[in-house]
Amino acid sequence: MAPLHTSEERNLFGYLAREFETLAERSLAEVDSLVLACLSYFRWPGEGVRGLDGVPVRELFRAEHFDAMTRGFWDPEGLVRLLAAVVASPRFRDVRICGYVDDFDESAEKQFSACALRLPSGGTYLSFRGTDNTVVGWEEDFNMAFETGVPSQVAAVDYLERMASAIEGPLYLGGHSKGGNLAVYATARCSSATAARIVRSFSHDGPGFTEEELSEEGWLERSRLVSKTVPRSSVIGMIFERQEDYDVVASSASGLMQHDPFSWVVEGRGFAYEEAIGRGAGFVDRTLNEWLQSMTREEREGFVDALFSVIDAGGRDTFGELREGWQETAPAMLRALAALEPERRAQITRALGLLVRTAMPDVNLPRMPEFELPQIPDLAELLPEKTSAKTNEERAEG
After folding, report:
1. Rg (Cα) of the chain, in Å, rounded?
2. Is 84 helix (H, G, I), strand (E, B) or coil?
């Protein structure tokens, strides 16, 4: 683990190590929001965090809880380091964690978690958790490509209304990744009385919304409350990005890794901003969104169902487990992919090809014109010999 106190770092850790003004002395801004958004990635222990009185965040910094609090997330060590920096910071050490909920329903393809952060300066920040390492969490994210009002979005509106009725004072909402989408969705769909109390709603590289959603009156009236930030190579945050205004943040990482909030560059008290997203990311974003927009809702739903039928064939609950057991999971997933109809198989291959391109650093796209992805080979030939032979025998029997 890197040193806890490195004020020279140009990221969230450096910001927390060098900023000593309280929230009463300097009001909450975009970088502060990203810190608070990341606090929803913890599984907070005990019953105290579920009540309205809550627990001071500094009392939750206990080594015996670190593993359970962070297991299954993308960067457990980074999260522990963030928590250490938060409890040491004069700006955040007196924040109280309350209203914590963690709702997982595999059958409903629902994964929702949020917590309310009572700010010592007054007001409450509702922090919505983004996507973790589970297959169910990612499937719900993909469901946003063909419908609005997915289970977590509905839960976010309900959570906002419940907390607004129980807690007085101004409200802030925010989240990273899917959490940003949930914050904005709740802002657009909550009651007028609740919306009047919202100071700002922050989306940090959260997916956008369908054209139908953005044209609704609730969104048009409340979009002024939204502050959206995306990294230069954003893909997640640029899904269905059409009407939302956004600022582009510099990142120390490349490609898809720029989604990592710990890589976002902080200069002084704010982010280091770029003029626009990178050309490589722009190409992928345009291609992906044009492709999704060309599908009907039913076609999008069929694509997502087919994609996750392939992933589910791996027989694991998290992507980390899929990766660790790749010798067993990869052949099973290839068999499921090979069993799809050719058109559906080609769609999934195209989507995977686009995602692979996002993992590459930005390239000078004028030198690399768009091309059609090649037809995928007979996937049975890619499997181990015994598996291929068995598949051929089964075909012969059929």
Report:
1. 22
2. helix
Residue with token string 């801004």: 29
Residue type, 123: G
Helix (H, G, I), strand (E, B) or coil at 330: helix
Q: Note whether 227 and 30 are within 8 A (CB).
A: yes
Residue 47 structure tokens: 């019953």
User: Is the dihedral angle over the CA atoms 309, 315, 316, 317 positive or is it negative?
Assistant: positive
- Going 140 to 145 to 146 to 147, the CA torsion angle's sign is positive
Q: Which residues are CB-contacts of 156 (< 8 A; sequence separation ≥ 6)? A: 112, 114, 128, 182, 183, 185, 186
Instruction: Report how far apart, in Å, the C-alpha atoms of 187 and of each of 157, 219, 224, 233, 308 are.
Output: 8, 8, 11, 26, 30
pLDDT category at 308 given cuts 50, 70, 90 is confident
Q: pTM for this one?
A: 0.76
pLDDT tens by residue, 106-162: 555 568 999 999 999 999 999 999 876 566 666 666 666 566 778 899 999 999 999
